[in-house]
């Protein structure tokens, strides 16, 4: 056995250093552990700052001793490689370990150990921990806002059926796979629209939209019998005509007023709220902002200067202002721009505002994809005799969109995270409901629980979305 | 030029549609305003505002004009943005570098921070800090001093005020130092290009920026003293700190959440930038005999910065725009003071919202023009 030099650990005295180092390292962690979990201060006899720094010093010496390169012990080498490459890294690793050990007990006790779950009055929340009872009692409000309790099944039913309809893609057989894009782009949004505006809203809106839906379905059915040549003009004119005929010549509403038809109770949009409103707004804005953004991205790359300038102006305008001022505009300025007897619901106004706002960001993202495509793709498509629209739909956009999946996902994430801003127009989704609940005199002082609850929900949604987009990106990644 | 109908018609249709939409809006706006008896105009800006603002950087009270109120809001927005940008940059660079650390714990810790803070809506974070976390702070009389001079209480953070004497001499000394550094840099570059000698510019710069202001203290008669906030009793249970500078809790909550949130995005930019520099670049630089410091300074950083700076500026812009969320916690920024209070008082919706939007628009467009210019300047000159 060679001489032990404590300033320079070497492989020759591996066992000595290993035992000593591990011992010191564990002593330091043990000290911090006792200190934080059991509140025992082993080093209380030492001066204050020394007792504070002692675990760090001990752990550092321990890690220094076991930092032996090519020791031949697999785990030791792994440990050295990952957390113990040099002095600086050793100190940082120790600090992080200590911070984790130190912060676990207060977090655990607040979340679980001292928290109260039972009961449904404020009296049970006397401990120092979180009051999850508060969340339990207010759960319905956080989920559905002021939507009447008796009618909440409508929201649940809509969401469940939309999720089921949305998952159709996973079960489609090969024969139907080619229709999926059409389904998701046209039919699914239409059904979603129908569900949310018919079903969740109910009342006169229900019937007003029902004309539109009936007109659309009727015109599609008749459309099959129209010769191919006239179909374009047919679909341009007939659905609108049908809608007008239905609305002004068949008086549905009179039947309701006379009590011959029994509609769903009307729930005005002001009563919608909570997490369900977050979903509704995100969903619609997502559906609307994508095509608008695509149109402006193409417009910005157009060869027509006027269209290009208008698109640039649109995009730069919306990207240059904060969403909150856009919502302000939709709330106070926009009604001034409409005819006096013309009223647009504030939820619809908010959805339009957010969609236009996010569309500008989507446009920029898609433009990035369009620019990234090599010129050869355009030239090849043109040389095949494709026109502008054919070229973009079949050659350019599929490739460009594939490239920008991460960017679009980020924009959609931003959209979901922006929904709480609708408090500006007086709509209360989950964060707004929290602020309302927090001011309730019976439940004062539980702001923390509410925000933590909402943060967890948003975190799960956003994290799931970003992971999903990552999967999608991997799935459509093609070598070029 | 050869004008074809096929080229003109789509443009014409678009322009007509845009003009029609705008015309429709203007027409309605005119009728609406006539009906409600509102007249359009920006004359109200010079009228007396007669509302107070809690926190302002310039002298302001109800007797000042609406324009002054606008300035107060704008300055408050800029204050929050600048502080937020500084903190977010420091934090973001640290976290971004930490994410590339070979140390597993640091790496995961940084990743956890990024994933945690960027997946929670900013508004929720602001509410959390303002309504939950900062409300748990002690009352002024129970507050413990941090380092003896800072007091963090439920009513805000109290910091000592600087009291300068002959501040302008100090300021000139800094300006002189900066000019001297620039001159030396140019000179050093010339020397290196003509003779191949290297002058330790960095050391000289650091020396200058410390020594010149120090000289101003010793010779120029500059002196600095601190005014420490002192607890004062107003009534039996009401205490307040006097002296020093007080930062309202709204400002603290806002800067904290803005910088924590934006730092996650900046961290990702930094990480992408450093990863974007190929490994071959480092190896090539090392193989021609550059020292590790030179590799970092001359090879890695210029290339990484080219990738990092454009998205980071975008994040700065986002931070500035996000600072408008201040309205939610009643921090008197541009949106709250002008688009909120002033709008309520005057009822001039179109004018005020348009001024507010125009301000933000000017801010972002000027920054993006600057950015485009910078991008062009640093872009790789391809042959």
Characteristics:
heterodimer; A: about 475 residues; mainly alpha; MetI-like fold; 3 domains; extended; B: about 375 residues; alpha+beta; 4-stranded antiparallel β-sheet; two-stranded antiparallel ribbon; 11 helices; 8 strands; globular
Task: Walk me through what this model shows.
The complex is a heterodimer of chains A (about 475) and B (about 375). With about 475 residues, chain A is mostly helical. Chain A has helices at about 15-40, 50-65, 75-85, 85-115, 130-145, 150-165, 170, 175, 180-200, 205-225, 230-250, 250-255, 275-300, 305-320, 325-335, 345-370, 375-385, 390-405, 405-420, 430-440, 445-475, and one strand at about 430. Chain A folds into 3 domains: about 10-115, no CATH class; about 140-145 and about 270-475, MetI-like (MetI-like fold, Orthogonal Bundle), CATH 1.10.3720; about 205-265, no CATH class. The mean pLDDT of chain A is about 80. By secondary structure, chain B is an alpha+beta fold. Chain B contains 11 helices and 8 strands.
Major β-sheet annotation of chain A:
none
Strand content of chain A: under 5%
Compute the number of structural domains of chain A.
3
User: What class, by secondary structure content of chain A?
Assistant: mainly alpha
Give the overall form of chain A.
Answer: extended
The CATH topology of the largest domain in chain A corresponds to: MetI-like fold
Instruction: Tell me which oligomeric state these chains represent.
Output: heterodimer
Helix % of chain B is 55-70%
- What would you call the structural class of chain B? alpha+beta
The pLDDT mean of chain B sits at 84
Q: Helix count of chain A?
A: 21
CATH class of the largest domain in chain A: Mainly Alpha
Q: Point out poorly predicted stretches of chain B.
A: none
Shape of chain B: globular
Over all CA atoms, what is the radius of gyration of chain B?
A: 27 Å
């Amino acid at each position: 056995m060679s001489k032990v030099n404590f300033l320079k650990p070497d492989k020759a005295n591996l066992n000595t250093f290993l035992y000593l180092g591990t011992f010191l390292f564990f002593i330091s962690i043990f000290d911090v552990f006792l200190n934080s979990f059991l509140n025992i201060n082993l080093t209380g006899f030492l001066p204050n700052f020394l007792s504070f720094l002692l675990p760090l010093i001990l752990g550092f010496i321990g890690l220094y001793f076991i930092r032996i390169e090519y020791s031949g012990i697999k785990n030791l080498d792994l440990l050295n490689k990952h957390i113990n490459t040099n002095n600086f890294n050793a100190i940082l690793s120790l600090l992080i370990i200590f911070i984790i050990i130190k912060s676990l007990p207060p977090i655990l006790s607040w979340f679980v150990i001292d928290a109260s779950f039972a009961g449904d009055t404020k009296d049970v929340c006397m401990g120092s921990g979180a009051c999850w009872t508060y969340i339990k009692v207010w759960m319905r409000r956080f989920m559905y806002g002021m939507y009447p309790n008796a009618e909440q099944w409508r929201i649940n039913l809509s969401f469940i059926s939309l999720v089921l309809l949305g998952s159709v893609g996973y079960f489609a057989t090969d024969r139907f796979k080619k229709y999926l894009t059409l389904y998701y782009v046209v039919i699914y949004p239409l059904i979603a629209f129908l569900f949310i505006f018919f079903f969740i809203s109910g009342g006169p809106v229900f019937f007003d939209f029902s004309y539109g839906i009936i007109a659309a379905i009727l015109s599609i059915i008749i459309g099959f019998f129209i010769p191919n040549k006239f179909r374009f003009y047919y679909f341009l004119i007939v659905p609108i005509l049908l809608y007008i005929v239905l609305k002004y010549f068949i008086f549905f509403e009179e039947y309701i007023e006379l009590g011959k038809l029994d509609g769903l109770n009307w729930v005005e949009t002001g009563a919608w709220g909570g997490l369900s409103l977050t979903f509704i707004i995100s969903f619609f804005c997502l559906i609307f902002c994508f095509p608008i953004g695509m149109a402006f991205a193409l417009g910005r790359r157009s060869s027509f200067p006027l269209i290009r300038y208008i698109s640039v102006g649109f995009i730069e305008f919306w990207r240059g202002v904060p969403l909150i001022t856009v919502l302000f505009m939709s709330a106070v300025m926009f009604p001034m721009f409409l005819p006096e007897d013309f009223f647009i619901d504030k939820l619809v106004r908010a959805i339009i505002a957010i969609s236009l706002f996010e569309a500008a960001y989507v446009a920029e993202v898609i433009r990035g994809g369009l620019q990234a495509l090599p010129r050869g793709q355009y030239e090849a498509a043109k040389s095949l005799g494709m026109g502008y629209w054919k070229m973009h739909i079949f050659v350019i956009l599929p490739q460009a969109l594939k490239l920008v999946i991460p960017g679009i996902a980020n924009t959609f994430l931003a959209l979901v995270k922006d929904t709480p801003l609708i408090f500006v127009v007086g709509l209360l989704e989950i964060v707004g409901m929290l602020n309302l609940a927090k001011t309730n005199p019976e439940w004062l002082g539980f702001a923390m629980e509410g925000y933590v609850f909402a943060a967890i929900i948003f975190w799960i949604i956003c994290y799931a979305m970003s992971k999903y987009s990552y999967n999608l990106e991997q799935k459509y990644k093609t070598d070029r | 030029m050869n004008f074809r109908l096929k080229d003109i018609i789509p443009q014409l249709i678009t322009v007509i549609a845009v003009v029609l939409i705008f015309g429709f809006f203007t027409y309605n706006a005119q009728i609406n305003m006539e009906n409600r008896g509102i007249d359009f105009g920006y004359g109200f800006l010079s009228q007396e505002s007669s509302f107070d603002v809690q926190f302002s950087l310039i002298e302001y009270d109800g007797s000042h004009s609406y324009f002054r109120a606008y300035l107060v809001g704008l300055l408050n927005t800029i204050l929050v943005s600048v502080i937020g940008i500084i903190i977010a940059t420091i934090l973001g660079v640290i976290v971004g570098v930490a994410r590339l650390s070979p140390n597993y714990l640091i790496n995961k810790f940084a990743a956890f921070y990024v994933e945690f803070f960027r997946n929670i809506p900013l508004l929720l974070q602001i509410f959390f800090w303002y309504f939950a976390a900062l409300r748990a702070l002690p009352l002024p009389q129970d507050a413990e001093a941090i380092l003896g001079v800072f007091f963090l209480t439920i009513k805000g953070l109290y910091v000592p005020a600087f009291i300068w004497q002959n501040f302008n001499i100090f300021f000139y000394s800094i300006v002189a130092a900066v000019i001297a550094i620039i001159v030396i840099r140019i000179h050093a570059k010339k020397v290196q290009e003509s003779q191949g000698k290297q002058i330790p510019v960095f050391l000289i710069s650091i020396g200058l920026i410390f020594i010149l202001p120090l000289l101003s203290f010793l010779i120029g008669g500059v002196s600095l003293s601190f005014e420490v906030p002192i607890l004062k009793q107003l009534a039996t249970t009401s205490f307040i700190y006097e002296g020093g500078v007080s930062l309202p809790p709204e400002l603290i909550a806002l800067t904290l959440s803005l910088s924590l949130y934006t730092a996650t995005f900046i961290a990702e930019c930094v990480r992408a930038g450093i990863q974007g520099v190929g490994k071959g670049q480092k190896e090539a630089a090392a193989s021609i005999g550059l020292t590790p410091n030179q590799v970092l300074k001359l090879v890695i950083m210029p290339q990484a910065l080219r990738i990092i700076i454009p998205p980071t500026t975008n994040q700065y812009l986002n931070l500035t725009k996000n600072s408008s969320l201040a309205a939610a916690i009643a921090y008197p920024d541009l949106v709250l003071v002008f688009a909120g209070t002033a709008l309520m008082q005057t009822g001039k919706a179109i004018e005020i919202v348009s001024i507010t939007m125009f301000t933000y628009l000017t801010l972002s467009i000027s920054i993006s023009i600057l950015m485009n210019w910078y991008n062009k300047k640093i872009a790789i000159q391809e042959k």
